[in-house]
Design a protein that fits this description.
Length: about 400
C-alpha cells in the first residue's frame, strides 16, 4: 500500500464540494480606443508630466522615442519628442526639459523613454496594423526607479513613419541588446519598478549616439564620426547602430577603405549575434537589384564583406529572403526563395570557401518587422535579406 504524507491525505479527503470554486479570471481590459495623433501625445504626455510634477521642480531629458519593434527613429517619433517638450514648457512650469547629452545625464535628471509601434486590433505588432501604440515612461536616475508611465493609442492618419536619415541610410539591422533594453524600459515596467540595469548602464553611450544621429541627419558628417567613435570606445559601445554610424559617416566622407572595414564590423556584429538583416533592394517581381547606383552601388562590396567574414569565421549560413505583403502569398514566397538563392550564389562566387556552407530559404511576407504594408521607404526592412549562422551546413 502506498503511503502519503499527512498534507497529501488532507488534500485527498476534500471533495469537490468542499473546495471553493476558483474565482473567474477577469478578462483583460480592451485597449484604449485610438485617438488622433496630437491628442494621443497630449493625453500621454499630460499623464506622465502630472505624475512627475507632484514633488516640486524637475529636470527631464528625452532619450529619443523609437519604433517599439525595430528601434528606429522616424519623422513621427521625432515630432513626438518636440511636442512633448512644448507640452512641458507650456503647461508644466516646474518641469524643465534639457537636451539629451552625456553632460545632462551626468546630473541624474528624470529620463523619458517612449515607443511608438504599429499594432493590430488586439494591440499587438502583428497582422493588419490598425493603430499606433504609444508608451511613455519617466525614470528617476537618482533613485533608479520608474516614476511615471502612460499608454495611449493613435489613429494612423497623418503619421509619418519614414525613418530619419541615419536609420534610413543604415545598411543593416539586427536584434541589438542596447535597443531592446530601451524598449523594455518602456514596455515592460510599471511605476515603482527599478529602471532595467541594461538601460542604465548604457545611458551615457545612448546620449552620445543621439548626438551623433542628430549630427549625421544635419549633414555634419565629421562631427558625427567623432561622436560615433567616442561612443564605440565606451563600455556599452558594442552596438549595431554605432557600427552602422561609423560605416555611414566614413562613406559620406569618402573614406572608402575605412568604410569597407567599418562594414566588416557590421558583418562581424551580425555573425556574433546570429542575425543580420541587410537592405538589399530588388526590382519589383525580380531577382535583380534596383538599378539606381545611389541605392545599390555598395551592394557588391557588402556581399564581398559578408562572404569574406563568414568564410573567415568558418560559419555555415542560412540566407533568408523576405518580401512585402503586396501580391499573392504564393508568389511572394517563391520570389523570396529565388532572391535568397541569388544572394547565396553571389556569396559563393565571392568566396569559394563558402560553397557547401550556405543554404537559401524564403519567408515571403510572413515575418514583417514594420508590417504597415506601405511598400515604400518606411517599411524597407520588411523587404530584407537575413543572414543567420546555423549549426550544420546542410
Amino acid at each position: 500500500m502506498r503511503l502519503f504524507p499527512l498534507a497529501s491525505l488532507v488534500l485527498l479527503a476534500l471533495s469537490s464540494c468542499d473546495v471553493p470554486a476558483p474565482a473567474p479570471t477577469a478578462a483583460a481590459p480592451p485597449p484604449p480606443a485610438p485617438v488622433p495623433f496630437a491628442q494621443a501625445v497630449q493625453n500621454a504626455g499630460t499623464a506622465v508630466f502630472t505624475q512627475a510634477a507632484v514633488d516640486g521642480p524637475k529636470v527631464v531629458v528625452i532619450d529619443p522615442l523609437v519604433n517599439g519593434v525595430t528601434g528606429e527613429q522616424s519623422a513621427s517619433t521625432r515630432a513626438l519628442g518636440a511636442q512633448l517638450t512644448d507640452l512641458a514648457r507650456q503647461r508644466f512650469p516646474t518641469i524643465k526639459v534639457e537636451p539629451f547629452t552625456a553632460a545632462s545625464v551626468a546630473a541624474s535628471p528624470l529620463v523619458m523613454v517612449g515607443t511608438f509601434t504599429p499594432v493590430n486590433a488586439q494591440n499587438q505588432p502583428a497582422g493588419l496594423r490598425e493603430a499606433y501604440r504609444f508608451c511613455l515612461v519617466l525614470g528617476d536616475l537618482k533613485t533608479g526607479k520608474v516614476v511615471a508611465k502612460s499608454v495611449a493609442r493613435a489613429l494612423p492618419a497623418g503619421i509619418d513613419s519614414t525613418p530619419v536619415r541615419a536609420f534610413a541610410d543604415s545598411p543593416a539591422w539586427s536584434d541589438d541588446p542596447a535597443v531592446k533594453a530601451y524598449i523594455n524600459t518602456c514596455q515592460a515596467t510599471k511605476v515603482g519598478d527599478p529602471i532595467p540595469p541594461a538601460y542604465l548602464n548604457g545611458i551615457i553611450t545612448a546620449a552620445m549616439v543621439s548626438q551623433a544621429i542628430d549630427a549625421y541627419d544635419a549633414g555634419r558628417f565629421a562631427e558625427a564620426l567623432d561622436l560615433y567613435t567616442a561612443a564605440r570606445g565606451t563600455p556599452a559601445g558594442d552596438q549595431l547602430r554605432i557600427y552602422n554610424g561609423l560605416y555611414l559617416t566614413r562613406s559620406k566622407l569618402n573614406q572608402r577603405a575605412q568604410a569597407q572595414a567599418a562594414f566588416g564590423d557590421v558583418v562581424d556584429y551580425g555573425l556574433r549575434s546570429n542575425r543580420l538583416a541587410v537592405k538589399l533592394l530588388f526590382r519589383p517581381a525580380s531577382t535583380a537589384f534596383v538599378a539606381d547606383p545611389a541605392i545599390s552601388g555598395s551592394y557588391d562590396m557588402w556581399l564581398r564583406e559578408i562572404a569574406t567574414h563568414s568564410a573567415t569565421a568558418g560559419a555555415c549560413l542560412q540566407v533568408t529572403g523576405h518580401t512585402s505583403a503586396s501580391g499573392s502569398a504564393a508568389l511572394n514566397e517563391r520570389l523570396s526563395v529565388l532572391r535568397a538563392e541569388y544572394v547565396k550564389g553571389r556569396l559563393e562566387q565571392d568566396s569559394t570557401a563558402l560553397r557547401g556552407h550556405v543554404v537559401a530559404a524564403g519567408q515571403g511576407a510572413q515575418q514583417p518587422l514594420v508590417g504597415t504594408g506601405a511598400d515604400d521607404s518606411t517599411d524597407a526592412l520588411d523587404r530584407r535579406v537575413e543572414f543567420k549562422v546555423i549549426p550544420a551546413c546542410t
